[in-house]
Description:
Chain A is α/β, with parallel strands linked by helices. In chain A, 38% of the residues lie in helices and 20% in strands. Chain A contains 19 helices and 23 strands. Chain B is α/β, with parallel strands linked by helices. Chain B has helices at 4-7, 21-34, 54-57, 70-80, 92-98, 100-109, 154-160, 174-186, 208-214, 228-235, 278-282, and strands at residues 42-46, 61-64, 85-91, 114-119, 165-170, 191-196, 215-217, 242-249. In chain B, strand 5, helix 8 (174-186) and strand 6 form a beta-alpha-beta unit. In chain B, helix 7 (154-160) packs antiparallel against helix 10.
Amino acid sequence: MLVGGEAGAGISRSGFLFAKTCLRGGLYVFGANDYQSLIRGGHNFYTVRANNEMVYSQADTVDLLLALNKETILFHKDELVAGAGIVYDGDQIELTDEELERDDIKLYSVPLRSIVKELEGPQIMENTVALGAAIALLDYELELLNSVLRDTFKPKVAEQNIEAAKKGYNYTKENYKDKFGYELQKTDLAGKNRVFLTGNEAICLGALNAGCKFYAAYPMTPATPLLHFLAPLEKEYKMVVIQAENEIAAVNMVAGASYAGVRSMTATSGGGFCLMSEGLGMVGMTETSPVIVLVQRPGPSTGLPTYTAQGDLRFAIHASQGEFPRVLIAPGDVEESFYSTLEAFNLAEKFQIPALIISDKYLAESHGTAEPFDQNRIGIDCGKLITETEYTGEEEYKRHKFTEDGISPRAMPGTKGAIVRTNADEHNELGYTTEDPVLTTKMNDKRFKKLDALNKELENYETVKLYGPEKADATIIGWGSTKGPIREAMKLLKEEDVTVNFLQVVYLHPFPAGKVQGMLQSAKKTIVVENNKTSQLTSLIREHLLKTIDHKILKYDGRPFNPEALSKSIKEVL
Amino acid sequence: MVNLEDLKTPKTNTWCPGCGNFGILMAFKKALIELGMEREDAVLVSGIGCHGKMVNYVNINGFHGIHGRVLPLAKGIKLANPNLKVVGFAGDADQYNEGWSHFAHAIRMNVDMTLIVHDNMVLGLTTGQATSTSQQGFKSKSTPFGVIPPMLNPVAHALVSDGTFVARGFSGDMFHLKKLIVEAIKHRGFAFVDVFQPCVTFNYLNTYDWFSQRVYKLEEEGHDVTDRRKALEKTFEWGDRIPIGIFYNKERPTYYDNLPHVKGVPLTKVPAENVDITSTINEMM
């Protein structure tokens, strides 16, 4: 199902409501939001894919189109399958056969505007009438939509919307008695038992579960929703959420909070991450441990602010001057977004390094279905934290003390008897500035010993994942949000007896060279799939494994891969 | 309670002989002693420049950050643990050039902390270029024909940004400066002290003598520190007479006062454990 209209018409909201209606009926749902960088006008759409089994991404085609304006029909008519339906308001939209150019489409005109007028509701409610019509065509249960509306809106608005949906439903049932051809059915999973959320939201939940108490950020699409999500929860979770004056301030604030001893996080997109680069280096040098979320969008520069890309992988690995250890995690779906965030907080504190989570608009703002998260699966590990009561004060406290694994015991400033001093200049164990060559070498070595320790720790983590059979005609390699379309493409290929497997690299830095090497050893053919122009993952594999990749399938138009198109591209290179 | 001996560090001081920073260093140490603070209670945050070395010369908690970013760093520390007394030290280029945007925002946020700016009206550590408080016409390595634009007026800016404690000191009058710093640290809210600090190596114009001949103390002329309009007028005095002392001192609720949900228990004292997020998860079903 695809709902489209101009910005400001509540398109994304109605797509979301429909998706949630599917979820409540026990279906697996995926919802993707496509919008432009404007507030009114333009063309926005939201696609919902629902199925009895897990769906990992949107589909290439549309079965039912809810068109709130004419542009939606003209824009999406070629994506419609034969037998697809269009719900639109024939009183408002004049559509000629020449314009439609399709004779295999079922047109369902519903007087959306008249119904809203009759109810004396706001024009935006036309969406809800259309949703009611869609439920009728799909022979689904209106009560499921009603329950979602009740949970979404205030009682008075909810009742008005329920009435609007009912009118749309009844009109459709009365006027279109023939079967539409597609239907939705409630399954055994019906009810409120699974979550439907975006990658951004999953990261926020992970941060809350991990005990993050300080969040500072500056708005930047597509990372802004994290701020929107956490700000209203500030009181409930007794945390501080700040809209900083800019990204430079945000990263310095979270570094300060981390030095003080609080789990802290910030999030931004490419341009903001540029501004954070200097602060990131300071975090590395001072061995503080905030979590930084980089939600990518196409660049360079402002690029396409509301679209998706994976062009910042190398940037995230190398950002900031000098050399220091960091960890970079790339979740591929909402579930991984949640658990990766918990891992990020633990690794940051345990190894006293910046932890970066790299996501992108497609993952960050698409809704996926997941089981309610296990809130105790990943406990809290603060590493070598000396609590106030544990500090004996027998010897002078050294914030950057040399140790076997390079990790110095961490006291919070305010601890009786401990002076906690750190320094963005090169420093000695006490945190005093130094320019001594021997000490400089030793301190660099100390910091990089932590990388060795981190690598050892990561051996026990799922830094890479393999999907599909161990033996296959080809191995697809990817990272981050391409996971969804790749897994859908695998389903399609399987139907055509093409067996491929998929190696997902979850931890991109430090690069899990050993594990990737092991998994690629038996690969007949390797295909890297990425949303960027230069195939940055390919370059990482080459760098770490001296291995050449056989084929690259790259997309850099700001849009995610569609599974069918991707499966075709894969077949072409086999 | 600290004494001078406690505050000593093993680091050799590398400021030029006669540097105005010495007056600020001593005034700060004496202020800590007068306030009866413990070494663990305070955090010294510094930026980049000659002033930045403060972290090496005072044996209390410290974070030597990066150029221009003292304020967001200090705010993060203070909001995470309001029990700490946070004192930021910045240079004039550090704060008024590189960190100018943070300046206005820290003042309006009114986080309970102190900012002391070592204002020598020149870049010292980079060997003598103009800053935004260099006087018009000031010749330096970067402005051999003289600074073209007029100088910034940080004290006036602090006032119009709704500052709650706005003062100016002179490192040539250490006892007066100490008093200002004591008042600034005691102030509940964001306290700002701009300090005239002669650079004996790179500022041939604004010397000890130059300042000594001009500065006068506001408190000796019956200035009303609660009158913002009058205070603002005073900030425009620049010439034969230049005022130092407290321009304005009037409290308003701090940023933290407006966060009742975290008041009482510093974030740093919240036990580290998995937080129950069931209620939020339920809303997403």
